[in-house]
Amino acid sequence: MAEVTLDSLRKEFDRGTIVAVDDVDLEIEDGEFVTVVGPSGCGKTTTLRMVAGLEEPTAGTIHFDDEDVTDVHAKNRSVAMVFQNYALYPHKTVRENMAFGLKMSTEMTKDERHERVREMAEMMGIEELLDDKPDELSGGQKQRVALGRAIAREPEVFLFDEPLSNLDAKLRTEMRAEIQKLQKEFGVTAMYVTHDQEEAMTMGDRLAILDEGQLQQVGKPTEVYENPVNRFVAGFIGSPAMNFVDVDVDTTGDTTTLVNEAAGFELPLSDQYLRGHDLRDSAYTLGIRPENVSVIEEPKGNEIVTTTVEVVEPIGSDNYVHLALTDDFLARSRPDIKPEPDDVVGIDFDERDLHLFDPETGEDVF
Ligand code: ATP
């Protein structure tokens, strides 16, 4: 297996007018599963295609262990790629589809190939489908065939490009678990591209978050969730998305207080929270996740702020309570906390759950 290292990897299109991937540095450890996540057009697929050898970098290098593979042809890289549209040959049977990849990339005899296909089919639970053609299969079965075909080649690096987006929600959850199990079983280094932050959070050992071609943060799912480095990551990771409120800092008197006058919001910060940081009299963007906001149905007057309920969306396990505090401020509360629209409620949260971002640069301030 291989460690994959991207060093200042860059891809420009249309004579430099489009910078799809902007000097990305990323190290994926041997046997590690890294998901690359970001909004549409952020450069995920282009990055993956460069690792596969399907796209030539404008600058930078790609190493598999110590070998510089930047100029190595795709067919000579030990990678297997699984796509969203399965990329199966429609006129070949499942058996032929699986054997074909082996024929192209290994020097096995026909009997060895067929034995390997049988083993993989058994492992993927698709033995009964070996003589079927792709159009006789469901989406989930096609994806199992595509996975089996990729694994059969015993690649050093496994590349996934949104492989589950054509499947329904239940099957997607099943296949997520299956892919992770296979990846760990084979110990293959994996890079998995998705625009779905939930998929990225549940699947990767680590996440790499891209925006506009630039790597924003790399870290374990909990690290990224708890300590986003900037407002983009904070808003992109976590569902429903983090609330943002513009605040000014008031340091008159003994306390440092976050204020949003329009929302009637005043939040004194403790010394413990500030840990010596001097916020001075300036503006910040406060971030608080909906799951960290408490809704108090009968305000007692000691809450951080009171506000009006706009809409309540029950989702079974919780209620999403939309509040008039700022534009679409959301609280995620327990199902027994179910105020009515137009009710005045209290809002509380623990200062330890707050994030503060620089409104100009978006960077987390401490
Ligand atoms: P999506 O989730 O929509 O597939 P992505 O994050 O995978 O998006 P890419 O497909 O890598 O993004 O595209 C990144 C940028 O590069 C986009 O602006 C895209 O339009 C541009 N791009 C990608 N391929 C080409 C190409 N062959 N020629 C010109 N521009 C391209």
Q: What does it look like?
A:
Belongs to the ABC transporter superfamily. Carbohydrate uptake transporter-1 (CUT1) (TC 3.A.1.1) family. It catalyses: D-xylose(out) + ATP + H2O = D-xylose(in) + ADP + phosphate + H(+); L-arabinose(out) + ATP + H2O = L-arabinose(in) + ADP + phosphate + H(+). GO terms for molecular function: ATP binding; transmembrane transporter activity. Keywords: ATP-binding, Nucleotide-binding, Transport. The complex is composed of two ATP-binding proteins (XacJ and XacK), two transmembrane proteins (XacH and XacI) and a solute-binding protein (XacG). By secondary structure, the chain is of the alpha+beta class. The protein has 2 domains: 4-231, 3-Layer(aba) Sandwich (Rossmann fold); 243-357, OB fold (Dihydrolipoamide Acetyltransferase, E2P), CATH 2.40.50.140. It is built from 9 helices and 20 strands. Strands 6-7-8-3-9-10 form a 6-stranded mixed beta sheet, sandwiched between helices. The protein has a 5-stranded antiparallel beta sheet with strand order 13-12-11-14-20. A hairpin with a 4-residue loop joins strand 16 (305-314) and strand 17 (319-323). Helix 3 (110-124) packs across helix 4 (139-152) and helix 4 (139-152) packs parallel to helix 5. The protein starts with a strand and ends in a 9-residue tail after the last strand. The model has no long low-confidence stretch (mean pLDDT 91). The structure holds adenosine-5'-triphosphate. Adenosine-5'-triphosphate (ATP) binds next to strand 2 and helix 1. Adenosine-5'-triphosphate binds next to strand 2 and helix 1.
